[in-house]
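It would be a great kindness if you could assist me with a short task in structural biology. The matter concerns a single protein, recorded as an amino acid sequence and a row of backbone structure tokens. Kindly check, if you would, that the fold set down in the tokens agrees with what the sequence suggests. Thank you for your consideration; the sequence and its tokens are set out here:
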Amino acid sequence: MGWKNLTRPSEFILLGISSRPEDQKPLFVFFLSIDLVTVMGNLVIILTIYSDTRLQTPMYFFLSILSFVDICYTTVIIPKMLIHFLSETKTIPYGECLTQMYFFLSFANVDSYILGAMATDCYVAISNPFHYITIMSHKRCILLLVISFCIPFLHSLPHVYLINQLSFCASNIIHHFLCDVNPLLKLSCSSTFAREIVVKTEGLPVIMTPFSYIIIFYLRILTIVLKIPSAAGKHKAFSTCSSHLTVGTLFYGSISYVSFQPLFNYTVKDIATLIYTILTPMLNPFIYSLRNKDMKQGLAKLTDRVKSQ
């Protein structure tokens, strides 16, 4: 669809992953399965943590929050995808598009900050185990949690506001499966200078702060672990944080590949985008439960409790 001199369309068209009619039902089944696995898997993680007193520690507190955020994150994206797979018209109203963008940006950044908080927790656990409970007190955990939610939700507001000020006078077709910033900027016929200034002055520090923390803390963790004389001690230290590192690598690796490219050269990377928006939240429960002895025991206790009722 094309039109002239229209500053604000009433709706956008999301082309999605595939426009071929024969692909729609298989894709619907595939992504519905992913959504169910993501929601159920992360709910099980939350229930396991809050039903086992041994898991009432800062590390598992942040893991339960990460699971909650992952459920919210995918809920912002997948339901609309499922509707479009079964619908001939793949439209999304203008206001709904901006709302999806706001919560998508917010929860993606909350994920990032929670991963940063988990890296902090892991570093304290390995570098100062005898004072771990004192340093990672309940008050500090709540403070980290508040920061992890407030900064991303405030950070997303100016970006959505600036998108709302743009004029769209060439097309309303978004070459993506969700309303993201760069695909909409590509459609705009307005100057994006103000948005670029916001990204450089406010956006980069907000996004890069948790990433920098994660890099610094894991480098320091690696230094500490390499100094441990016994192989058993090294294995225990690595097993404590290997799950966090795996999730962080998946999340930041894919999001960096998609995001760090000039707007004029921007193209939608469906596979990479799917990794950090949909696949990583689905894999998190498996990564944390299969590689963690305490989580396995907690899952076994939860299973026994459910069977006995």
In short: The radius of gyration is 21 Å. Confidence is low (pLDDT under 50) at residues 1-5.
